[in-house]
Amino acid sequence: MRIDQYLWFIRLFKSRNIALNACKKGQVFINDQTVKASREVLPLDQIKVRKDQIWRQIEVIALPKSRVGAKLVGLYCIERIDNLDAELNKMQQLASHANREPGSGRPTKKERRELDDLSKEDLIED
Hints:
Elements (H helix, E strand, L loop, with lengths): L2 H7 L6 H9 L3 E3 L2 E2 L11 E6 L2 E7 L16 E4 L3 H14 L11 H17 L1
Antiparallel strand pairs: 1-2, 1-3, 3-4, 4-5
């Protein structure tokens, strides 16, 4: 089964197209290797996905035949949340670097790019 299809089946992404775009952007890793959307998923693979600025780690248990209901997702994967607190702390630290005056409005495109660069540099250090 394709990785983009699997991520959609287990309801990590709302559509397969969004999962495909995440793979193209390099936000999906299987066993610590960047993958294309067509990469096959096997049981016991370790998947790492960046979604909403948080890295989520998933271990594949089984492959579903079709998209499953939210209650049944636990039958097909285990989400590792042991480093969720560390991820949230990193996000808070990054947010502290980007102090803005209250009422100054939304960040400009340049400021958003600088914030993205900060988060990328932080990921490279890991």
